[in-house]
Structure formats: structure tokens, C-alpha cells
Amino acid sequence: MRYRADLHCYLCSRSAATLEWEGSTPGAVMVTRPGMAIGEMAAHEARRVRCVRCGGPTFIEEIEQVRQPAMVTIEPARRGRPRKVDKDRELEQEQALLARIA
């Protein structure tokens, strides 16, 4: 499972960076800063990230889990009036899909 955290500046209160890491390897953190390249850092180095605009210290605002989007294949529509058996089957498939997503 992936996690994402936003770093905000104490001085100017702008978003300084975004941290992303795998739950299984919390020591390796991907740091995304505005106007700079994406880089990988160790967790103790990411604590020292400064604001790009004013150079102020940063703090973690919120940590959230990143969910992977579910891939759904949509079949092309068939011509003509659908059979009653097909409607029941499609309704069951749709309910099963909604149960998996929720």
C-alpha cells in the first residue's frame, strides 16, 4: 500500500513538497517539489526538506493512503433489443462490480 503526505512551510504556509512511499519500505521516500525534479531520499533526509520559496522549515500536514484505481472493461453495445436473460445477467454483474468497488 502506498502513502502520500504533504509538506507545508511554517513561514509562508505554502505547499513545499509531496512525499510518497511504500508501506513495506518506509525508508525510501519519493519527494516531489514544485519547480524541481522528482527525487528519492531516505526518510531521515526527507525530514530536512526546506521550502523552495522562502527556505523555511516544513511540517507534515496530512498522511493519506493512495488507492489504485480499479480497471473496468466496458463491452461495446449490442444492436437490437436485449433479451430478458441478458438484462438479469448484466444486472448481477453490475451489482457484483459495485460491491467490489465499495
Main attributes of the structure:
102 residues; alpha+beta
Task: Describe it.
With 102 residues, the protein is an alpha+beta fold. The protein has a domain at 2-66. It contains two helices and five strands. It has helices spanning 43-46, 84-101, and strands spanning 2-9, 15-22, 28-32, 39-42, 58-66. The protein has a five-stranded antiparallel β-sheet with strand order 4-3-2-1-5. It is elongated, with a radius of gyration of 22 Å. The model has no long low-confidence stretch (mean pLDDT 84).
Tally of helical segments: 2
The largest sheet, given as strand count, sense and whether it forms a barrel, is: 5 strands, antiparallel
Mean pLDDT rating: 84
Overall shape: elongated
- As residue ranges, the low-confidence spans are none
Radius of gyration: 22 Å
Helix content: 10-25%
Strand residue percentage: 25-35%
Order of adjacent strands in the largest pleated sheet: 4-3-2-1-5
Q: What is the SS-derived class?
A: alpha+beta
Strands, total number: 5
Alpha-carbon distance between the termini? 18 Å
Order of helices and strands: EEEEHEH
Brief rundown of the structure:
The chain is an alpha+beta fold. The chain is built from 2 helices and 5 strands, in the order E-E-E-E-H-E-H.
List the SSEs and their pairings.
Blueprint lengths: L1 E8 L5 E8 L5 E5 L6 E4 H4 L11 E9 L17 H18 L1
